[in-house]
Amino acid sequence: MRPTQRVSSASASSRASDVFQAGEGSTSINVRSLWFLLAYASDVLPKLRTDERELIHKGEHDADLLGALGTVLLARTERRLRTMLSRGYVTQSRPLTRVRGRVDHLQTASRQLMKSGRIQCVYAEHTVDLPRYRYLHQSLRKLSVAGVETALAQRAKQAALTLERLGVTPIEPSAQDLAREPWGRSDAEDRDLVALCRLIRDMCVPEHRSGSSSMPVLKRDEGALRALFEKAIKGYLTFALRGRGSVHSPKERWPLGDLPGDDIAREFFPEQRSDVVVDIGQRRIVIECKFGPIEGGTMFDSSGPRKLKAGYIRQLFTYCQLFASGRETSGVLLAARTDSSTIPPLDFTLAGIPMKVRTVDLSQPPLTIRAAFDEVLLTPNPAAEPEMRLSA
């Protein structure tokens, strides 16, 4: 069972100012910035139309990303309701006065249904009351009370009522029901609606204050948040490049020789995988993402000046060498800023490889985070390629 806590149903403006501690209590995260990370870490943005995607990516709706995505969901739902909803077969088990499908003799006998002239029947019903539409209905209900604008909340309630009138039961489907949902080749639009609902539900959850409603507590596990941070960086850079480059996470083996001993040793050497690698023409940027502190005291004097952790620098330097592939390679150590961080922005060259160390303050609004992510794509000598400077 997932841990829960009582939370309040505050407005979007007050919730957006709520900053909570995460990553072993060392990183401050603004809920509005967490929405930003969730949006770019999800697989929803690539499925949106260009105009819908630009609505999110331009940053004009950073003050209320939940409302912007809710607008997209409502527009798609209303368009879907103007067409014929998909129908499918759903297994039902009900007491009936006539035989339909097969008879469940055990339930009929144990519930003594024959005394009232009924029998328990299990049958397949052709209906629009599918788990996908029940999930959509419940998501619209959650959106209508999530503190979005009044007009949007009313549209969400109206769309939910329309689904009910069409025959969709207002009951939350189980995870098993959704997993067993049969998807056809013509169900791409419904798939996108379900994915968008999942993202909006994630955005409705993170509010860590006392209140009258019970919701799952957002994970404060550093590993889970680091994975979210890394996925958000990959998603954001993919859209920021707009086809001018590629973003991926390649794997590479150690460059052992061809001697017999090397072949034996190769079986025991682990593969190396970089967090994020960006290719822009002949340039390659190797990015290592860290969610925890990237600094610590010296080995012999922990009370002395705090320095970068040697393991992180060695890791980045090694990856820049392994993943160079004959390209002009640079490295970036990108970390979520902790409350005790004292490391300023660093630009240096290590054995001929240009490198950067940057921290992203997640307690700041999305505009600041966009600027930090955009800076990753700048060349070591920005004047050499001014076209790669991105607007915030």
From TrEMBL:
InterPro entries: McrC
Official protein name in the record: 5-methylcytosine-specific restriction endonuclease system specificity protein McrC
The organism's taxonomic lineage, starting at the top: Bacteria, Bacillati, Actinomycetota, Actinomycetes, Micrococcales
